[in-house]
Amino acid sequence: MRRWFAVRGGEWGFAVVGLPVAVAGGVYALAVLYAGTLLSLTVLGLPFLVAALRGARGLGALHRRLVGRLLGERVEAPAALPRPAGFVARGRVVLADPVAWRTLLYLVLRLPLGVLGFAVAVALPLACGWLTGFPLWRRALEAGPHAVDRLDVVCVPLGPALLAAVPWAVRALSAANRGLARLLLGPARTQRRVRELETARATLLAENTDRLRRLERDLHDGTQARLVALAITLSLADDALAPAPHPDLGRLRALVDRARGQTDETIAELRRLTRGINPPVLDGGLAEALPALTATSPVPVAVRLDLPERPDPAVERALYFCAAELLTNVAKHSGARAAELTARTAGGRVRLTVRDDGRGGAAAGTGTGLSGLAGRLAAVDGVLRIDSPPGGPTVITAELPVRL
What we know:
Elements: H1 2-5, H2 9-39, H3 45-71, H4 87-95, H5 98-132, H6 134-141, H7 150-184, H8 189-240, H9 249-275, H10 286-295, E1 301-306, H11 313-334, E2 339-346, E3 349-356, H12 370-378, E4 383-387, E5 394-401
Helix pairs in contact: 2-3, 2-5, 3-4, 3-5, 3-7, 5-7, 8-9, 8-12, 10-11, 11-12
């Protein structure tokens, strides 16, 4: 019952304050379409549309702020229009702007939603009060005795019944307004995709640059130093083999043993450095790599695989490193006692899910590396979904195409 009657103050405010804004925007959009149609055959038609579409972009920004402030729905602002040289080129860009045309459509559709929202939030409660007290109003306004009739019997319970439906109606209309804003006020799908790819590319370039710097530092400080030590040991061994009446075989044996140990350490160091570039375990595919990865986890992990089709190598690499990152988070941050890793392919998509019974509360940007992981997945057309309520359980799903 408490959830049924719970309505946020912002939703009431949006229904009341949004009416004049919706009316103004709807009148603007209808006037633009009407006047633009009339002026389309004249010289003033195109300049009028250019100015009107620029104004529509400004009204879209106002509605985005209103939806974000009152309804709590953050709608991403579209990219700014390019500014080519010349008035004709700029006008052509404005006329071909999908954001402005979609904003005009939003303003037209927002008008009936705004009127309906105001009616539900303000007019309907007043009408419910009038219905509940209808027998009293009727007898106060009309002289003479009045018997209780069917109208009195229907109006008295109908008022509270309709009043009880007001919170649900306000929430439903708020959800409709959120969905409409997400659909029409944000960037176009192609613009959003371009922005996601640009962000993913920048993330990958930054990560690859850091990785190359770490690799260079490790090669310089570790492997190169080991090779220099090996060269010195071999030089000492060469000196021990110099012509002499009685060479020191014990010293020579010790130098050879030292050179052998330094060679083994250098080989192990190179294997460690190259393992992060392309894990050899992926040569057998995810069906072999994922069980081997979970076997090294300090938290017991149940593995369920359904991979009849092997993805592209880039997708396999992304999923492998995603699974490694998620299992590391489970061990470090979740406090879980058990986890489950599931991977399956269906409908041309491969889905990796990691579930744990830990404390929950995982989110991107909280020091768990999930933001960077989402960016790396976006570079191969993948998405990362996080479901981690406080108290758990945590379910994180990575979904990518099988073929790029």
